[in-house]
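>> received
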Amino acid sequence: MWIRQILVAVVGLASGFAVAAGLFSFIIGLGVVSDFADRTHTGKHVMLYENCIMAGGILGNIFWVYGLAMPGGKWIVPVFGLFSGIFVGCWSMALAEILNIFPIFIRRIKILKCVPWLIFGMALGKSLGALLFFYKRW
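>> returned
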């Protein structure tokens, strides 16, 4: 009986490690980290960026799995939401950039002059969606 539980624990941990490694590799492969470093001219700190992403994933999982309370209470949750939204937005934009979605879309429907408004609309929609999501959870 206990051998079976140990086996399930080992398989669960190994699966979790594999999924996390795949996700972090995907984030790095999309170029989110290198794009941040390039735009901020802080290329010498790429390892720090990658370590922070890894620590965020690990701590996020620990808080989620064990149901730990967020230190700092209600004032840190909006800050966390803001940074999470920025990260997810950058991640989705990097994915869209890799897939060349926007150049093809803009050429097809001929909206070259409206590109700044299109980006602003996507950012506003993402922000409002995140605000509504977190407002309903409270």
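>> The chain has two domains: 1-68, 71-138.
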